[in-house]
Amino acid sequence: MAFNQFGQPVGEPLTDWRVPQRPAGEPLDGRFCFLKALDPQRDHAALFSAFQLAPDGRDWTYLPSERPDSAAAMLQHLTQLQANPALVNMTVFDSASQAPVGTVAYMRIDEGNGVLEIGHVSWSPAMKQRSSATEAVYLMLRHLFDDLGYRRCEWKCDSHNAPSRQAAARFGFNYEGRFRYAVITKGRSRDTDWFAITSDRWPAIKAAFEQWLSPDNFNAQGQQKQRLQAFMR
Questions:
Q1: N-acetyltransferase domain location, by residue (predicted)?
Q2: pLDDT at 221
Q3: Going by C-beta distance under 8 Å and a sequence separation of 6 or more, which residues neighbour residue 119?
């Protein structure tokens, strides 16, 4: 524990701290997927088709908007996302098909304190419960911690959104608490659950991701041999 000149306990000094750069939508390449900066004109038609693989719009219940019901509506949705200066939006592409299959964003970016959030996570059925979903999050985490030098990455979700809470835990985010009556969304009160990965924990989490993503962890049919949680332990 560190103490100041008055003998009071204080945080550890950051003697080598450097303010990181804001993410700029740099391309991120993986084995199962790759990410590029969102381009609404380029991506909207394929994304509309990908999200239409779901029989209904239940995957959008906890997102700020409902699932677009046409390619034109998808273009409008993506254009609105892109117009928000607080977001750095990314499109996720499937490596095998080269097609857009989801979107995600860096948000709540606070360069001065080295903190940001991965949010607006919107996976189509072509991504959900597949290796690309895990790899996309890994690529973003690696970029923000290793390339840019952030100290903390947050994950927040509606307290009722069980799949998002489970994903946060699976990816190594620590649960930090529930903010009651945090926001109003779609005319409903929302309690928000907070999760985070900090830079001191990142090396171990990174190693777990890379062990899971290793070709040795997949059989000839592309099925995992061990779950990510096994490596997180």
A1: 49-191
A2: 86
A3: 104, 105, 107, 108, 155, 156
